[in-house]
TrEMBL record:
Keywords: Antioxidant, Oxidoreductase, Peroxidase, Redox-active center. GO terms for molecular function: thioredoxin-dependent peroxiredoxin activity. Its EC number is 1.11.1.24. This is Peroxiredoxin. CDD domains: PRX_1cys.
Length: 224
């Protein structure tokens, strides 16, 4: 559905990929998260670096129970030829995740991954550099949208996966510039009494001019 955003249910599309046909809901299954990421086109420089880094980070995502699915407007044959370049340029890291074909632009329209300005040589709309992180409940948990000129930072994608995981298991949020191992903040909806029970490891409260105790920090050591 156009306008697909955080909180919306992923459309259960059937897509043709480099791994054969698959339905999106079946592919997501009960995995912790699935990352669906679109690219303006095959045999383009920034996309080649991005898909290569996705391949290089695949083990890190797999450790977290995360699946990957690329989307590009070209056909499967083109994808398979392009993969050879991606692997060669990115030190041989294998592209083991599927890449969906979308020559009719149906998928990118349904997933809200259309660049509003760019068109290809035939006048068709092109994919934006978009990324959705989908939960096991098939809902969009987070989205990135970059212009074609700016490649993604895979460390940031990994970081937000870790943040989403912790927030889905505890009543916490991750502060600005948080990275795994840093303290997290306890949700304001949790009372101090509840916080003592939920976080037996304890927590620290920042002293502020307002005198309010909403800045409460704790350390979490749970892993995937």
């Amino acid at each position: 559905m156009p306008g697909l955003s955080i909180g919306d249910t992923l459309p259960d599309l059937e897509v043709e990929t480099t791994h054969g046909k698959l339905k999106l809901h079946d592919y997501v299954g009960d995995s912790n998260f699935t990352i669906i990421f679109s690219h303006p086109g095959d045999f383009t420089p920034v996309c080649t670096t991005e898909l290569g880094l996705m391949a290089a980070y695949a083990d890190k995502f797999a450790e977290r129970g995360v699946k990957l699915l690329g989307v590009s407007a070209d056909d499967v044959q083109s994808h398979n030829e392009w993969i050879k370049d991606i692997e060669a340029y990115n030190k041989g890291h294998k592209v083991n995740y599927p890449i969906a074909a979308d020559p009719t632009r149906h998928i990118i329209k349904q997933l809200n991954m259309v660049d509003p300005d760019e068109k290809d040589s035939s006048g068709q709309q092109t994919p934006s550099r978009a990324l959705h992180i989908v939960g096991a409940d098939k809902k969009i948990k987070l989205s990135f949208l970059y212009p074609a000129s700016t490649g993604r930072n895979m460390d940031e994608v990994l970081r937000v996966v870790d943040s989403l995981h912790k927030a889905s298991h505890h009543k916490i949020a991750t502060p600005a510039n948080w990275k795994p191992g840093d303290p997290v903040v306890i949700s304001p909806t949790v009372s101090n009494q509840e916080a003592k029970q939920m976080f037996p490891q304890g927590y620290q409260t920042a002293h502020l001019p307002s005198g309010k105790d909403y800045m409460r920090f704790t350390n979490l050591h749970d892993q995937y």
